[in-house]
Amino acid sequence: MPKPTPLSGFPELLPAQRVVEREVIATLSRVFELHGFANIETRVVEPLDVLAKGGEIDKEIYVLQRLQAGPDQTAADATLGMHFDLTVPFSRYVLENSGHLEFPFRRFQVQPAWRGERPQEGRYRQFTQADIDIVGRDELGFHHDVEVVRVMVEALGALPLPPLTFCVNNRKLIQGFYRGLGIEDVTTAIRVIDKLDKLPAEVVAAQLVEQAGATEEQAQRCLELATIRVADTSFVERVRALGVTDELLETGLAELAAVVEGCADVVSDRVSVEVDLRIARGLDYYTGTVLEIFMAGYERLKSVGGGGRYDALASDGRTTYPGVGVSFGVSRTLLPLMADGVLAGSRPVPSAVLVALTDEESRPAAQRVATALRARGVACEVAPTPAKFGKQIRFAERRGIPYVWFSRRDPDGGEPDAAGALTHEVKDIRSGEQVAADPATWTPPPRTCERGS
Amino acid sequence: MPKPTPLSGFPELLPAQRVVEREVIATLSRVFELHGFANIETRVVEPLDVLAKGGEIDKEIYVLQRLQAGPDQTAADATLGMHFDLTVPFSRYVLENSGHLEFPFRRFQVQPAWRGERPQEGRYRQFTQADIDIVGRDELGFHHDVEVVRVMVEALGALPLPPLTFCVNNRKLIQGFYRGLGIEDVTTAIRVIDKLDKLPAEVVAAQLVEQAGATEEQAQRCLELATIRVADTSFVERVRALGVTDELLETGLAELAAVVEGCADVVSDRVSVEVDLRIARGLDYYTGTVLEIFMAGYERLKSVGGGGRYDALASDGRTTYPGVGVSFGVSRTLLPLMADGVLAGSRPVPSAVLVALTDEESRPAAQRVATALRARGVACEVAPTPAKFGKQIRFAERRGIPYVWFSRRDPDGGEPDAAGALTHEVKDIRSGEQVAADPATWTPPPRTCERGS
C-alpha cells in the first residue's frame, strides 16, 4: 500500500511518547489503588438506547455496522454504538452487576472513548480518559465527595504536568441561591450561567431575563454570585453578604466548605483547589459537588477534567445508585503537552543494554549474557548483526540505549561459548567510560536504568 | 433503565477477574520489555481499504457510521472499520512512521480487536490480544525467528496457565517438499492440508488430488509429511526418509531445527515446543516459520495463539518490511479458564486494610492513619460509616480486605484528632489475631499484601 497518512482526530503516539503515557497511567493507577479503587474495563459498545438520550452528544455517537451482513448478523448488531465517555458504560455496568459488587463500590477505569466531533487541539475522535467514581446503593455519604476530590488531587499531583487548578462549586448552593432569590426556572438559569466563559456578562444577564424569567435585579445578583472565586472558605461570608436565605443554599455552602477544607492537606504548588461559583457543568444529572480542572498555560483547552456528585448515577426503577466521581482527560492533557515539547519521552525502547556481537558465532554467548542481565531485571537486547563495534555503538545511540556490552574470548583460551572463558566490559556510551563487568552481578547505576513503566 | 443484560460476544470482567487479567498483562509486558520490546497502541479504526482485502474476514469487519450525519460528517467517517487483529494496524503504523522508527523495530501491543463473528467459547466480538513482532527494513535476520518464539515461550511460561505447546513448522519446508514432490499448485495444497484438523485424512487426500493437482501417490506423501510430530530435531531425518530433495526444503529443515534447538533452554513443564509438520496456518503471507499455540485440556479452543515469519509484513512499493511475530489470545485463553474456575481472582479490591471508624468525628484521624499507611505503599480505605465494629469487620470480609485497623482514644486523654493521643491495633480477620500497630511503621506480612498488579 502507499505510505499512509494520519487520520484526523485519531492521534497515535510514537514509542517514546507512549512511554510517557504509560508512566502517567501507571502513576494514576497506583494512587487510585492505594485508595482502594478497583480497576474495571467495560466493552467499547453499548446498545444505542443506553447511549442516545436526545442530547447534543447524540450526533457524535459512532454506530457499528457489519461491512457485509452475513447469516450471523443479528438485530443487536445494528443497534450498537461506541461509548462517548466512561460514565455511561460504568453506570450500566453497576446496574448489570449490582448483585456481584460491594457498595460503596470504588472503581477506576482508564480507557478510550469515541466522539465524532470536529478534531482540534485537545479534542479528538478517539481519546483516553481516567475516571474514578464511588457509587453507593440507595445512599452514599457526603464525605465521599471530599474523598474523590482528594484522591484525584493527589493522583494528578504525582504527574509531571504544569500547575492544575480544581475549580469547585456545588449545585445545591446555586440552586438554593436562585430559589431563595425567587427565580422561577432554576434549571434554565444554571444552563445560561454556564455560558459565562463563552458569552459576555451582559448577554448572559439578558438571557437570564428572557429565558429563565429573572428580573434585571435577580440577573445581576446571579452574576455577582458567579464572580466569586476564592481559594479558601471566605466565599461563605461573601455569599451570605448577597442577602439570600435558603435551606438548600446553606447545605451547599457547608458542603463546598467541607470540600475545600478537606483538601487543604493535599494541595500543593502543582495542584490547587479553588471555589469558583461560576462552575455549573451543563449536565443536568449533577446534584451537589461539581468541579472542573484547568491547566496553567493551557486555558485554551477549557477543562482537562471534571466531575461531581449525581444522586442518581444509575437506577433500575427499584434501586437508585448515587455516585460521585472525577474524570481526567489523559489524551486531552498529554497530547498538547507533547506537541509543545513540555512532555517528551527520554527513550523509545525499554532496553538499558545492547549486547554487542563479535561475530555471528558469538550470538549464543551474547544471549547468555542477556539472559543473566534480564534475570536481575535489566532490560536488554542482543545486537541484530555482528557489524563493526562502532556501528553497533551508533545503533545503540540511535535507539537511546545507554550501555553497550562487549564480550571477548579470554586470551587463556577455552571454548568461546563457555561463559567462563569470556571477559566482559560495559561501555556507557554517553560518557564513553568502559569498565570490566560481570553479567551475573552488573546492574546499571540507578539514575540511568529508569524504565518505561 | 431496566436492569441490563450482557451483550453476547462482548464479555466483561468483574473486578476480581480483572485483577487476574491485569496481572497477566503486566507479567507479559514485563518479559517483553526485558527483551527490549517497546509498547505501542494503535487507534482502533483503519480505513476500510487497509482492512478489507476480499478475504473471509471481510464480512466480520465492523464499520463505523455516525448516528446522525451532522455538518461535521466527513467522507472519511464513512470508510472507517474497526481492526480485527493487531497485525494489520501495526503494519500500517510501521509504514506511516517508518522515518521515526529504528529498525529492526521490536514492539509489543496489548489491545482489543473486534470481529462480528458468531460468539462461542473462546470466540468473542471484542477480545484482547498480546502481540510481539520484530520488523526489519529490507532485511531481517533469521535469528529473530528464534528470538520471538523464545520470548513468547518465556512470557507465557511466567503465567499461571495449564501446560502450553508451541507447535512449530516452516512454510519453506512444506513448499519445498511439495515442489520437490512435483505438486503443481503448492499454495492450494497448503490450504487443503491446513484443513486436517477439521476433515478426515481421506477427504484431505481427495481434495489434494482434485484441487491441487496432486497424484494419489503425491497426496499420500503430503499426508505422511503432515503426520510428523516430534519434540526434537529428529524430524529432519524422518522428512529426508520420505525421499524428496529440494533446496527450499533443506532451508526449511535447517530453520525449523534452529527454532527447536534455540528454544531448548527456555522450554519447561509449562511450555513446550514441538515440531508439527501439519501446521500451515491458512494465511498466505507467512513465508517461513509458522506456529500455533495449544493449551492442554483446552484443545477445543483450537489455538490460543500463533504467528510466524512474513517476508513482506508491509510495503509501500519502494521499501519492504519483513517481520516475524507471535500473537497470544488473552481473552480467548483467560475467559474459558475463569469460567471453569481454573483461574480465579483472590480479591476484588486492592485494599489490604480497612481503617475502622469509632464515630463520624474520628474520620479525620482515620484518614491520617490511611495516609500514613499509603505512604509506604499499603493500599487502604476508611470505613464508609461508623457502624458497629462487627459490622465494619463483615464489610471488610465481603470486600476481601484482610486487615481491619482500630484506633482508640488514649486513656491518658488528649485531643482525639491528634495522632499521638491514639492507640492503634490491627486485626487479621482471617486468623482473628489482633496486635498493637503503629501507622508509621506497620506493613502487612508479605504473603498477604499481594496486590492486584
Describe the protein's architecture and organization:
Two copies of one chain form a homodimer. Chain A is α+β, with helices and mostly antiparallel strands and 453 residues long. Chain A folds into three domains: 282 residues, BirA Bifunctional Protein, domain 2 (2-Layer Sandwich), CATH 3.30.930.10; 38 residues, no CATH class; 96 residues, Rossmann fold, CATH 3.40.50. Chain A has a nine-stranded mixed sheet. Chain A has a five-stranded mixed sheet with strand order 14-13-15-16-17, with helices on both faces. In chain A, strand 11 and strand 12 form a beta hairpin. The first copy, chain A, starts with 14 loop residues before the first helix and ends in a 17-residue tail after the last strand. The C terminus of chain A is likely disordered. At the A-B interface, helix 1, strand 1, helix 2, strand 3 and strand 4 of A face helix 1, strand 1, helix 2, strand 3 and strand 4 of B. Strand 3 of chain A pairs antiparallel with strand 3 of chain B, so a sheet runs across the interface.
Task: Based on the model shown, name its key terms.
homodimer, 453 residues, alpha+beta, BirA Bifunctional Protein, domain 2, Rossmann fold, 9-stranded mixed β-sheet, 5-stranded mixed β-sheet, 33% helix, elongated, disordered C terminus
